[in-house]
Amino acid sequence: SLVGSEMCIRDRFKVQPIYPRRAKERNMEGYVIVAFTITESGTIEEPYVMEGKCRSAANREGQFNECSMFNSATLRAASKLKYKPTVRDGRAVAVTDVPHKFSFELEQDS
After folding, report:
1. Rounded to whole angstroms, how far apart are CA atoms 89 and 58?
2. 22-61: buried (b, 16+ CB within 10 Å) or exposed (e) per residue?
3. Cα of 109 vs its chain's centroid, Å
4. Summary count for the chain: helices (H), strands (E)
5. Residues near 42 by Cβ (< 8 Å), separated by ≥ 6?
6. How would you label 78-87 residue by residue, b for 16+ Cβ within 10 Å and e otherwise?
7. How far apart are CA 24 and CA 17, in angstroms?
8. Around Cβ 99, how many Cβ atoms within 10 Å?
9. pTM reported for the whole predicted model
10. How many CB atoms neighbour CB 100 within 10 A?
């Protein structure tokens, strides 16, 4: 199998994670970077969290802090991603450790 960083991978099917209610109530924003294997058929296996961070939406200049409140929504969304199968030497191959970043941002009240 190949490692994700060495290839250009096109996702066929974009997925927007569900914003966790607890994060919304606390006015928290953030992002999660997950990595996973893209199978020969373009589906996702074994997603895992590489990094999860959040900060208050009221302080967008502020530092991001480690947090896990977006992890489960991200993993659920990641498992629904679909990719074009990667073809190497005429056959589809699995690609491991492909990173993908999901961002969580609240609508700003104008």
Report:
1. 51
2. ebeeeebbbbbebbbbbbeebbbeebebeebbbbebeeee
3. 26
4. 2, 9
5. 12, 82, 83, 84, 85
6. beebebebbe
7. 13
8. 13
9. 0.84
10. 22
Q: Which amino acid is at 27?
A: N
Size of the chain in residues? 110
Q: Which two tokens stand for residue 44?
A: 């996702």
pLDDT in tens, 2-43: 554 444 566 666 788 999 999 999 999 999 999 999 999 999
- The type of residue at 59 is N
Which residue type sits at 9?
I
pLDDT in tens, 34-86: 999 999 999 999 999 999 999 999 999 999 999 999 999 999 999 999 998 88
> Which of helix, strand or coil describes residue 98?
strand
